[in-house]
Amino acid sequence: MRFGGYRSSGGQCLSSASSPEDCLLHVPPAVGSGAAQGREAAMHSVWFGEFIGTLVLVLLGDGVCAGVTLRKSYAADAGWMAITTGWALAVLCGVVVAQAFGSPGTNLNPAITLAAAVSSGDYSILALYWSAQLLGAFCGASIMALHYAPHWRVTPDPAVKLGCFCTNAAVRSPLANLFSEAVGAAMLVVVAASIYSRGVAIGGPAGGVGPWLVGSLVWGIGLSLGGTTGYAINPARDLGPRLAHAVWPIPGKGGSNWRYAPIPVLGDLIGGALAGLFLHFARP
Fold first, then answer.
1. Of the candidates 76, 109, 63, 100, the residue with the CA atom closest to the CA atom of residue 217
2. Using one digit for the tens of pLDDT, what is the confidence trace for 259-281?
3. Which of 33, 45, 104, 210 is the most exposed place for a label (fewest CB within 10 A)?
4. pLDDT above 70 as % of the chain
5. pLDDT digits over 5-42, tens only?
6. Would you say 279 and 189 are in contact if contact means Cβ atoms under 8 Å apart?
7. By CB neighbour count within 10 A (0-12 exposed, 13-18 middle, 19+ buried), where does 281 fall?
8. What is the Cα–Cα distance from 77 to 71, expressed in whole angstroms?
9. Domains of the chain and any CATH numbers
10. CA-to-CA separations, 203 to 18, 58, 103, 130, 274, in angstroms, rounded
11. Residue 181: left (phi > 0), alpha (psi -120 to 50), or beta?
12. pTM: predicted TM-score of the whole model, two decimal places
């Protein structure tokens, strides 16, 4: 089965043919020598690929939320279809950037990394990936906040401003909200793994096709399951921007709703872990 997070091509992942760390921790060799080789290694590594890919994902994803909900934006009130489409394309862009800069596994999501760890039994990868993903999400949200700087003052509702950064339940019901996030994250992992499985294509998707299919998957999850909690389906995507909202002096921003914050983190990790356990035994 091919997986490796969001991956368009390459070696076997989460399968009996090879372990996820073979693809998750693959670092392309540096080219050149001396200082040039050092710069190449620094800018093309798994950690940097995960960092810059997650930054792009959150910058564009949170950006569409801001464009649709902040006042005096040309995209104001464009609606749910615009938001789900924007997030799908944000995933596509994040995936190809992460691959280009050294992360062939392109997880961009702690829930996917946890699924790989549970499936393989190797948890040594978590610190490397999670640190890059969380920092990338924080930086992406910070750039978004700066990009929309003039619009914060003309948007009166603090809840709208927070919604540009992170998620919240449409109807507050902690157990139901936790379940919704777990289901969304599990669907993300299982369907992404199926996209890269031998049952779908012996050699995996053709080069460059995989990211489009995963972007379409995220679009589908948003349209079908996202209406309950805003479909974080990614702990870094929610926690990193929530931290950015708390840290930066955004005019009239209000609180960061830390009471709700554990739900998209724990729910997504639970969903990822259960999906990883399922894939360990089922192996599509």
1. 109
2. 999 999 999 999 999 999 999 99
3. 33
4. 85
5. 333 333 334 333 333 333 433 434 444 555 555 666 66
6. yes
7. exposed
8. 9
9. 20-282 (1.20.1080.10)
10. 14, 30, 20, 29, 26
11. alpha
12. 0.86
d(CA 226, CA 148): 24
4 phi-psi bin (left φ>0, alpha ψ -120 to 50, beta other): left
- Cα(17)–Cα(4) distance, integer angstroms: 13
Each residue's pLDDT tens digit, 122-136? 999 999 999 999 999
